[in-house]
Design a protein that fits this description.
The complex is a heterodimer of chains A (about 260) and B (about 270). Chain A is elongated. In chain A, helix 3 packs antiparallel against helix 5 and helix 6 runs parallel beside helix 9. Chain A has nine helices and two strands. Chain A is mainly α and about 260 residues long. A two-stranded antiparallel sheet of chain A has the order 1-2. Chain B has nine helices and 13 strands. The chains are: A mainly alpha (about 260), B alpha/beta (about 270). Chains A and B meet through helix 1 and helix 4 of A and helix 1, helix 2 and helix 3 of B.
């Protein structure tokens, strides 16, 4: 990474922390685990209820499938389009930065924002889980299902895979943001297409090819482990990696291609 | 210093700039004049590397713009029509941010620039609280970061009151005199700009009507001239009756104040 790329990235991170709307997204991610903890307490006779693990899984599954993708789409869909709408992109380009450097800095800043949201979600959930429900070895009728250490190793693997799935969401958002004429249309198209795909993917039998279908997969696998099902990660893991990588690659390729063709008046 | 050779730009099938040649020398205070939609901003966009020409070449200090874009645009300061800033940052933060992007993170320079454009007292206010005139002055401060060799200003007096226009023009004249820099200004407000520029070019419908020193253009054998009138309809009627008038274009200056005509007269007639 050269000096100029580092500088533009530093500025992107500075803007990330100074833009108040990003704190709304962070607040939404903070509130959800608290609501989930009350939700779990109200569920009776649920297997593993009363343990921190089931709470962690319930809370993170809610966050990663419903809250975080929407927050990430809102964030990513406005990264490029907001600069285009206001015209601030021109200031960056006439400061001697290429369009590729501009898009790269947006991608890295979005990735950092994703890691911030995921870290906040995990930390909040684990702390609430620990203090409200407690952790220990997972047992059923006196038989050991999973050791505490095994759970956390598998948790790290699942959570890392989840980051890949969510990065596909960001990439899609950045692509829409690059193509869209303005900020409002970008956000509308990104959120609208996400909701539309969620609604029609099963009916059209295209769910295996849609990036959002794989968001719940990593934590579902972890959930199976805590339930005592030692299901194999293959072949779904390879499908997950292939589809997510393709969405990331194609979305980012289109973003770089489209921005190169745009004239900024 | 800035050379445009056969520059043409199409947006789809619409020809925004048609075969324009232009040569701006070091130290020139050059005005690009023409009505709205004439192609001025497109020409400036191509010089700043934001718009890629469909045909033609742009050279700055003898270097091809297209192959040395990063290096050449770093030597320019640009003020866009409708200056844009991050509204959630203060004026000073916006200036600091652009200074860092350009590689000049000197705090003394930032304070000096704020002082130059008389924004020191409002430096810590969010830009969303700024008036248009303050935004224009902040944009000028941003353009002056790093003491650029070339200053490019697209309609810098647009939407300003007479006092604001005078402030901006005085700043430009001082900058030009003190630093012997090249300044390129586009405007459709002829009256203000012509008083500070040593050369002008008149553009209409993407084509160059004339360009050169202002007094030369207004001499006897000029192919074009400017007419100022406070009676638009009467002026139109008179011009339409004259056989030697080839074409004329209206350049609005200000509502209900003055209108300018560019009158094209055949050579030696």
């Amino acid at each position: 990474m050269n000096k100029h790329t580092k500088e533009i990235l530093k500025i992107e991170i500075f803007k990330l922390f100074r833009n108040r709307i990003n704190y709304v997204y962070i607040a939404a991610v903070l509130i959800t685990p608290i609501v989930s903890s009350f939700g779990l307490r109200m569920i009776e006779n649920t297997k593993n209820s009363g343990t921190g693990y089931s709470y962690v899984l319930l809370s993170l599954q809610t966050l990663s499938t419903m809250i975080i993708p929407i927050m990430l789409l809102l964030f990513a869909a406005s990264t490029v389009s907001s600069e285009k709408t206001t015209g601030t992109i021109r200031n960056i380009l006439v400061s001697g930065y290429s369009k590729a450097q501009f898009i790269s800095s947006k991608i890295i800043a979005s990735l950092i924002f994703l890691l911030i949201l995921m870290s906040i979600a995990a930390t909040t959930t684990i702390l609430i889980g620990y203090f409200s429900f407690g952790f220990g070895n997972i047992t059923e009728d006196g038989f050991l299902i999973l050791k505490q250490s095994q759970f956390w190793i598998n948790f790290l693997i699942s959570y890392s895979l989840l980051a890949i799935a969510l990065f596909a969401v960001i990439s899609f958002g950045i692509m829409v943001s690059t193509i869209a004429q303005n900020n409002i249309s970008s956000i509308t198209i990104a959120i609208g297409s996400y909701i539309l795909l969620e609604g029609i993917k099963t009916k059209l039998h295209i769910e295996n090819y849609i990036y959002s279908s794989y968001i719940e997969f990593p934590l579902n696998m972890l959930g199976d482990l805590t339930e005592g099902f030692y299901s194999t990660w293959m072949p779904k893991l390879s499908h997950f990696l292939l589809v997510s990588s393709l969405w990331i690659f194609i979305s980012l390729f289109i973003s770089f291609f489209v921005i190169k063709k745009i004239d900024f008046k | 210093m800035i050379e445009l050779r056969n520059i043409t730009k199409y947006f789809g099938t619409n020809c925004a700039v048609n075969n324009v040649d232009l040569s701006i020398e070091h130290g020139d205070l050059f005005a690009l004049l023409g009505p709205n939609g004439a192609g001025k901003s497109t020409i400036l966009g191509m010089i700043t590397g934001l718009i890629e020409p469909s045909h033609g070449k742009i050279q700055i200090n003898g270097n091809e713009l297209i192959s040395n874009k990063k290096m050449l645009v770093r030597k320019m300061g640009v003020v866009f029509e409708n200056p844009s800033f991050y509204l959630y940052l203060t004026g000073k933060e916006n200036l600091e941010l652009l200074a860092k992007l350009k590689g000049y993170p000197d705090k003394k320079m930032i304070n000096k620039l704020l002082d130059t454009v008389s924004l020191t007292s409002r430096a810590k206010d969010l830009v969303k609280k700024y008036s248009l005139g303050m935004k224009q002055r902040l944009a000028l401060a941003c353009a002056l970061i790093g003491n650029p060799d070339i200053l490019i200003l697209d309609e810098p007096t647009n939407g300003l009151d007479p006092e604001g226009i005078q402030d901006i023009l005085t700043l430009l004249v001082n900058f030009s005199k003190q630093n012997q820099k090249t300044i390129l200004i586009s405007s459709h407000q002829v009256y203000d700009i012509e008083s500070i520029c040593n050369k002008i070019a008149i553009i209409n419908k993407g084509s160059m009507l004339c360009y050169g020193k202002l007094d030369e253009l207004l001499c006897e054998n000029a192919v074009s001239c400017l007419i100022t009138t406070d009676n638009l309809n009467e002026c139109k009627r008179i011009l339409a009756d004259k056989p030697w008038v080839k074409d004329f274009t209206l350049i609005n200056r200000k509502k209900n104040l003055r209108d300018f005509y560019i009158e094209r007269i055949k050579n030696n007639e």
